[in-house]
Amino acid sequence: MRKVVVTGLGIVTPLGIGVRRTWKRLLDGQCGILSIKERGPQFAALPSQVAGIVPEGKKEDGAWNAKELLNPGDERRMARFAQYAMVASEEALNDAGWTPKKEDDLEMTGVYIGSGIGSLDDVYDTTISYEKGGYRKVSPLFVPRLLINLAAGHVSMRFGFKGPNHAATTACTTGAHSIGDAARLIQFGDADVMIAGGAESCIHPLAIAGFSRARSLATNWNNKPAESSRPFDKDRAGFVIGEGAGVVVLEELEHAKKRGARIYARLAGYGLSSDAYHMTAPREDGHGPYLAMKNALRHAGIKPGAVDYINAHATSTSLGDAAENRAIKDLLLGEEGKQNASDINLSSTKGAIGHLLGAAGSVEAIFTVLGLHHNTLPPTLNLNNPGDPPEEFNCNYVANSAQEKQIDVALSNSFGFGGTNASLCFSKM
Fold first, then answer.
1. pLDDT (tens digit per residue) in 304-320
2. Helix boundaries (H) for 32-79
3. Which candidate, 350, 406, 403, 337, places its Cα nearest to that of 381?
4. Per-residue pLDDT tens over the stretch 85-133
5. Which of 28, 26, 27, 45 is nearest to 37 (CA)?
6. Cα separation of 114 and 229, whole Å?
7. pLDDT digits (tens, 9 = 90+) for 346-393
8. Which residue numbers delimit the Ketosynthase family 3 (KS3) domain (predicted)?
9. Which of 108, 85, 118, 79 shows the shortest CA–CA distance to 13?
10. Which of 254, 355, 400, 428 could disulfide-link 239, Cβ–Cβ 3.0 to 4.6 Å?
């Protein structure tokens, strides 16, 4: 198999636009979760009134401004999730220094960007318009804005990439699946370079109502939004919905070396599994996540004891965090693993940005790569008392403050409704 490396990073999150700004704010312990009840009566009537919102303002301040960040006409043609994907892709490509012009290079460069839900706003607004005014109230751009694969489509059209053009939609595992699947396209020779990731923007009353009815969202911290996402904390009580995009440039190792590209990390392994259990709830023993991580390490040829850090999926739900914690300990403790739970380093960056659904896996993969590249463990915010029972939650969760640590191997976990699981294994070269 050909080796795959990461040579470019691009990001849009509730902490801001751009990798440098987002990473600094994350390490500084800042939070991008805000109250949304002032957005209107529909939001104010919801049980959960907090969300991870991409800040709006001036580009120079690291905030979202479509007029400054997009080309003329893009805002009309693209749904918001696709706009986020475009901006993150452009940053990643600039970061990688990959601006091919030769036909052979364009044919061997592909795009793999997915979304969990896509443009719920367009579905809702168009449904209302159609009910009121019929056929003529439906925009000719309705379907193109709606389709999840149009994020990848727009990126490939913008830059002329003629390689694989694909999109995953696997709920909250989408971003990780996109990166892992794209890496395999490189390994099998279908591309030399892949732009891969996930994007999401559905801070909409209908989405929040749906997740609330499923009893998935945090509702106890509406007056303290920055404290609402509490991975691994005993007072955790549901996830906080968020929006954004994360995109990486993946490249075949020799191709990257030949052009003198900076290499952040090697994507050494990719593991997938299914809980085969329940539509929304995880198995309590965490067997699905365990298999995904085990398979990622198997593909990488790396023993559990060599894992220095895990960026956990941990969304701040009671069952989910406990199941993943159990899976991680089952994998990393033992004969080929570590001797003590306190030697296991893991954190959930969702305390700072909330749960970005289809973008979560790719954004958190970027945080994992940056942690490995800078030898820094990003913090788990709002972790004041690790969850009950204490003897189960006894790892190093990097509570509230970043930690310096030599990181040579790291895992990034993502799990989704339907019991779908993925784990990405990154390593230094």
1. 999 999 999 999 999 99
2. 41-44, 66-69, 74-77
3. 350
4. 999 999 999 999 999 999 999 999 999 999 999 999 999 999 999 999 9
5. 45
6. 24
7. 999 999 999 999 999 999 999 999 999 999 999 999 999 998 788 899
8. 1-428
9. 85
10. 355
280 burial type by CB count under 10 A (0-12 exposed, 13-18 middle, 19+ buried) = middle
* C-alpha of 33 from chain center: 16
**Residue 362, SS3 per DSSP:** helix
What structural domains and CATH numbers belong to the chain? Answer: 4-258 (3.40.47.10), 271-427 (3.40.47.10)
Q: Which of 72, 279, 283, 111 is nearest to 193 (CA)?
A: 111
Q: Distance between CA atoms of 365 and 411, rounded to whole angstroms?
A: 8
Report residue 427 as tokens. Answer: 């390593």
Quote the pLDDT of residue 390. 84
Is 396 in contact with 344 (CB distance < 8 Å)?
A: yes
CA contacts within 13 A on the Cβ side of 322: 19
Tokens for 421, please give them. Answer: 């699981």
Residue 334 DSSP SS3: coil
Predicted structure pTM score: 0.97
Residue 425 amino acid letter = C
- Report how far residue 224's alpha carbon sits from residue 33's, in angstroms, rounded to the nearest whole number: 9
Instruction: Indicate the helix (H) or strand (E) that contains 296.
Output: helix 287-300
Cα first-last separation, the chain: 16
State phi, psi for 215 to the nearest 5 degrees: 60, 40
Residue 298: C-alpha distances to residues 13, 177, 329, 339 (Å): 32, 17, 17, 20
* Mean pLDDT of the chain, nearest integer: 97
* Contact indicator for 1, 301 with CB cutoff of 8 Å: no
Cα(287)–Cα(293) distance, integer angstroms: 10
Q: What is the token pair recorded at 331?
A: 């994998």
Residues designated catalytic: 172
State the virtual CA torsion across 32, 57, 360, 74 in degrees, nearest 10. 170
